[in-house]
Design a protein that fits this description.
The protein folds into two domains: 167 residues, 3 Solenoid (UDP N-Acetylglucosamine Acyltransferase, domain 1), CATH 2.160.10; 211 residues, Jelly Rolls (Sandwich), CATH 2.60.120. Helices cover 2% and strands 37% of the residues. It has one helix and 37 strands. Strand 32 and strand 33 form a beta hairpin. It starts with 8 loop residues before the first strand and ends with a strand.
């Protein structure tokens, strides 16, 4: 705070006892300025380097920090803090904060407890609710809403009209499903681009058809085309049919569509999936591997491994049949000795620009023994923990 005794003053209209606006001397920090028509209420603070442009307003208790700008039509309410830029129609409500370098343009609202940090953008019509956060490089475009506890992370986007709910996050998600099929035939269940599925709900699933193949220019959940690619392979042994299969889900949910098909490692052969990440993923990320097969009343043990650079991480899980016919909802697959079925295995904090996923059948209580391990698909979620 700047000492009022050392601060220059400007005239701002304040009502007298008769309700008539009378110019009053108000304090600005050294270097602070108020454009013609700008309003700084009694108790408002404009620090050195702060600016209230013509038509801008800072209410009592509002603060414009060094480098902050309140443009024409912008408002900093009591208790609001402005270090970045609030454009025409933008409002920083009591308790809301826009950190230096953050931007809340035309029509944007930063509610009490909401935060837009350096480099974050909440454009036209966007709302950052109490407890919502847009992190550096994150964008919540026109009409987007970040609800309490929601986060848009670096490089993430919440599209026009989109909502990031409490505890949710919007970063980069790339999803691939294996179409599967029965006895080598291509699966019949299709997914539209708008269908949202996965433990991390996402649209624009990339469909991988057949027991082996490649896909380039993988599409992210926001519909953007990336430089990522995937190659998958199941080495079909002599006398075997290509190991593509389906789960007999009868419901028409998006998750049932996504989980319906799978590749299946059989006996001593493994399914391998090699992934090259897009250049936009430059830090730690997580991989969700979906694993739900079609089995009878037996227990099978599956082993999944990811080679991430020089690090090999291996996880074993079980599935106890019989498989259900209605999608059960997503949950972690239990480790050996656990109960239930589950639908995914999570690998966290991977950092390699490429990784290789391997699925291997480990054990089965069936008689005769039939070793199997399904891979229905996977999701890459960046950044890790989002």
């Amino acid at each position: 705070m700047v000492d009022a005794a050392e601060s220059p003053s400007v005239d701002a209209a304040q009502p007298n006892d008769e309700g008539i606006d009378v110019p009053q001397p108000l304090d600005l920090g050294a270097g602070g300025s108020s454009g013609t028509g700008g309003t700084l209420a009694t108790g408002g603070i404009v620090a050195s380097g702060g600016l209230i442009a013509a038509g801008g307003s800072v209410a009592k208790g509002g603060t414009v920090a060094k480098g902050g700008t309140v443009a024409k039509g912008g408002t900093v309410a009591a208790g609001g803090t402005k270090g970045g830029t609030t454009a025409k129609g933008g409002t920083v409500a009591a308790g809301g904060t826009v950190v230096t370098g953050g931007t809340s343009p035309t029509g944007g609202t930063i509610a009490s407890g909401g935060t837009v940090v350096t480099g974050g953008i909440s454009p036209t019509g966007g709302t950052i609710a109490s407890g919502g956060t847009v992190v550096t490089g994150g964008t919540s475009p026109t009409g987007g809403t970040i609800e309490a506890g929601g986060t848009v992370v670096s490089g993430g986007a919440s599209s026009t009209g989109g909502t990031v709910a409490s505890g949710g996050s919007s970063g980069t998600i790339i999803s691939v499903r294996f179409v599967g099929g029965r006895g080598g035939a291509s699966g019949t269940t299709t997914m539209t681009a708008s269908e949202s599925a996965g433990f991390k709900p996402a649209a624009n699933w990339n469909s991988a058809t057949g027991a082996s193949g490649t896909l380039s220019s993988l599409v992210a959940s926001d519909g953007s085309t990336t430089s990522g690619s995937v190659a998958w392979n199941y080495p079909v042994a002599a006398g075997q049919t290509p190991a593509t299969y389906t789960v007999p889900f009868t419901d028409a949910s998006s998750d049932a569509h996504m989980m319906n098909g799978f590749l299946e490692a059989r006996d001593t052969s493994s399914v391998t999936v090699g992934v090259t990440l897009p250049s936009s993923i430059s830090g730690a990320y997580d991989v969700y591997v979906y694993c739900y097969g079609n089995i009878n009343a037996v227990t099978r043990t599956y082993q999944y491994a990811i080679q991430d650079g020089t690090t090999l991480t291996t996880k074993s899980v079980i599935q106890t049949g019989p498989s259900v016919t209605t999608f059960p909802g997503h949950s972690p697959a239990p480790a050996p000795g656990g109960t239930g079925q589950g639908t995914y295995v999570l690998f966290q904090n991977l950092t390699g620009a490429t990784f290789t996923l391997t699925a291997t059948a480990a054990a089965s209580t069936s008689v005769p023994v039939a070793l199997r391990a399904p891979v229905n698909g996977f999701q890459i979620v960046y950044p890790s923990g989002s």
